Amino acid sequence: xxxxxxxxxxxxxxxxxxxxxxxxxxxxxxxxxxxxxxxxxxxxxxxxxxxxxxxxxxxxxxxxxxxxxxxxxxxxxxxxxxxxxxxxxxxxxxxxxxxxxxxxxxxxxxxxxxxxxxxxxxxxxxxxxxxxxxxxxxxxxxxxxxxxxxxxxxxxxxxxxxxxxxxxxxxxxxxxxxxxxxxxxxxxxxxxxxxxxxxxxxxxxxxxxxxxxxxxxxxxxxxxxxxxxxxxxxxxxxxxxxxxxxxxxxxxxxxxxxxxxxxxxxxxxxxxxxxxxxxxxxxxxxxxxxxxxxxxxxxxxxxxxxxxxxxxxxxxxxxxxxxxxxxxxxxxxxxxxxxxxxxxxxxxxxxxxxxxxxxxxxxxxxxxxxxxxxxxxxxxxxxxxxxxxxxxxxxxxxxxxxxxxxxxxxxxxxxxxxxxxxxxxxxxxxxxxxxxxxxxxxxxxxxxxxxxxxxxxxxxxxxxxxxxxxxxxxxxxxxxxxxxx
Length: 485
Ligand code: ADQ
What we know:
Layout: E1 7-14, E2 17-21, E3 27-31, H1 35-46, E4 50-58, H2 62-75, E5 78-84, H3 86-105, H4 116-136, E6 141-146, H5 153-159, E7 165-169, H6 177-180, H7 186-193, E8 198-201, H8 204-217, E9 222-224, E10 231-233, E11 240-244, H9 251-257, H10 261-273, E12 278-285, H11 292-305, E13 313-320, H12 327-347, E14 355-359, H13 364-373, E15 376-379, H14 388-396, E16 402-406, H15 412-415, E17 420-422, H16 427-439, H17 442-458, H18 461-471
Parallel strand pairs: 1-4, 1-6, 4-5, 6-7, 7-8, 8-11, 12-13, 12-15, 13-14, 15-16, 16-17
Antiparallel strand pairs: 2-3, 9-10, 10-11
Helix pairs in contact: 3-4, 4-5, 10-13, 11-12, 11-16
This protein binds adenosine-5'-diphosphate-glucose.
């Protein structure tokens, strides 16, 4: 019987920290918050865990390594930084990851820049991650790699002769075969994924898309569908187990954080500022997948079609700056600004501005206060792996709030029955859903949101971690159970 791993190593593009400067200019480490970190924290502590990722700084920086070493005691697990040169950041992160995989996997192939030099750097940086993993890996470690920037890590590890148990979770969608076929490195990406022992997707749709691509492009593999999870069998390597594990949030933590005196205060200020008006809320990273321009147009169509709603409703759109070094993102920022000013220019009346546009990362308390104040959330990505904002609003929003959700968000697979689902490309259909949201009887709204909360309580972030690790045959304690494949 082989020796079974009992340590856990998480590998992600970025480490769950940021480096900030103290008043005297010396750098210090701030632990990041967020669902993934919160859920993995206790497990990493129990399992004498390690987290490997890019620190966010340029090149090798000894200070970062020293800071991380010191932080290990207070954080409870160790962290090791990958250092990336400027060129690597450009070609691996902005290039292959965010100008090829990101748009293609979100069905937006026209936004891809298939620059051949990106692939070489992607391979090279994935090798760098693998080399750092190899330095800190022991025979009893389970390695769990996160997301699309690191697809090739298992392949690089195998080339280094590491025969570890390795799992991978894809946070973004997996596209339909007609789209995937456009990728010049399609076989390499599929073969890279098949070096993992367990592959997790957000939804059944993503999983099926992946299996169809495997069947079409890799005729030498077989798929065994007889067990709980499909198993991809190869002639010359370990089988790959595949499943879908919809990611979630910690609803208890969100509810508690949304009901502190500070948030109460901010909530009252928002509600007072908007007086009796209905508040519709959009919250997104700056990204063309989030459907922000189409959403603004839908709001404009609502005001046009139902003029009686003018002065009675406002859209608050929060956009968090992201990836502005890529021209597509800088262009999107312009488009959004232009649309906001056109719509506001057309409809604003004394004491009423239709769209409140916030372009910055809000402090968490303010974001939670907006969730609480909003009568409806308008979440209309053109495509999204999951979309956690939808779950956060359902949990923190008012007891009679309404969730309007794109049918192309992974979250719709779980939440569509109790939300108003829309095709985000359908401007008039989305406007109509908005009208339905603000005219829906209160009891109906209460019933729907309580069902959404029930589902999110049941399938929370801890359920996600547990289910994935169980599929990997890893117990919460970090020990791999006997018989893992
Ligand atoms: P993202 O594309 O970043 O994540 P999302 O799931 O909506 O999208 O998560 C955004 C997170 O940022 C939320 O937790 C939200 O609270 C936070 N946030 C949003 N606006 C903020 C603001 N103004 N200030 C501070 N924080 C803010 C990717 C995939 C998603 C998938 C997640 C997790 O694209 O589809 O759901 O990973 O797997």
